[in-house]
Amino acid sequence: MTKTALAKKGAIKLLELKKIIGVSPPVKDLRELIKLLGPSDSTVLIVGESGTGKELIANALHGCSGRSAGPFVPVNCGAIPRDLLESELFGHKKGSFTGAISDRKGRFQLAHKGTLFLDEIGDMSMDLQVKLLRVLQERTVDPVGSSDSISIDVRVIAATHQNIEALIDEGKFRKDLYYRLNIMPIEAVPLRERAGDIPLLIEHFSKQQAKVLQAPISIYPASMKLLLAYDWPGNVRELSNLVDRYTALYAQQEVDLRLVPASMVPSGLRKLMQGKESQNRTLSEDESSRRAVKQLDHVTADLFDRPASSPDRIDLPIGDSDIDEIQRVINLAQGGPEFPDEGLELKQHLLEIERRLIKQALSKSEGNVSKTARLLSLRRTTLIEKINKHGMHSV
Q1: Using one digit for the tens of pLDDT, what is the confidence trace for 260-290?
Q2: Helix, strand, or coil here: 133?
Q3: Three-state secondary-structure class, residue 186
Q4: How many helices (H) and strands (E) does the chain have?
Q5: What is the spatial distance between Cα 375 and Cα 87, in angstroms, rounded to a whole number?
Q6: Single residue among 189, 213, 233 that ends a domain in this structure
Q7: Beta partners for residue 236, in sequence order
Q8: Whole-model pTM?
Q9: 284, 310, 325 — which closes off a domain?
């Protein structure tokens, strides 16, 4: 191979790898795996949710292989009608069926000396799986209506969003074909597991979809936090579509999701926004309650057998009636004017407040004693004694 050919091959490899956007550990590992598996001629099975970029991975494998100068031929097995898929893959002879007005090469022949990408392989019918298995074993194809076999030199990369092993258990996928395809497995990681790549992906798609001489859109910082928290069921494809949508609506602008019409925001993202708004309102309404609890924390430090709370302590939600009682005790402890003429049992009041706080902490931690002790800044053994004293239950 000449220096020019080697340089061209290296450029193709670099270009295909650069198309896999991200700096997160899963993406870095994926690129290294592609570099390792690319030069091999072994069959690869890419598994992952819809929209995770399985065809992009297949393209990168092809670009890193010795077949990069040959064709890359994709086939979506789930998008082609069952009765036409065999002809699409293996070709047909003129007159072999209604509409076959001439000989036609199948995708396997078109991918000769290159790579054939079989997407959504889990949707392939059982009878066609048998024929595909034979092709992979014999490296020959039999066009529909022909008695002659045609030799092929093709690397096969398959992909699916389905659980193939579950399909095997259900009798919908052949185990022998699975083993033939799964020689080199690759997993396409969902976007929610590499959320740190979202800003880079948004920047990439924004530049890609902006019109000539126009600046790409940007995302308002608070909205970016929402996008990072969203679980992206449609993965990178959903993100790309969303950037495309906002590029059309808000060309060259900063996008603030609060100002975007509800119909233009994914339903899951709308729910997340509503939850954040509700949380902010709750935090505002409970501000005075937190101050009261922190005051009480210092007043009752000795009785609770612990130091006053540290600044990063997790505060517990307190009901209105609890706050009234807490505030009343605080006022009394600070010399307020509400001390009753008949007097009161201070220890009993503080024990009741202690009981309520422990009860709420147990509820928040679902009965877990260790977590409850951390919430209350208590030693675990001290908390257990108090739980037993108050006749409570834990796990």
Answers
A1: 999 999 999 999 998 876 666 555 555 545 5
A2: helix
A3: strand
A4: 17, 9
A5: 66
A6: 189
A7: none
A8: 0.68
A9: 284
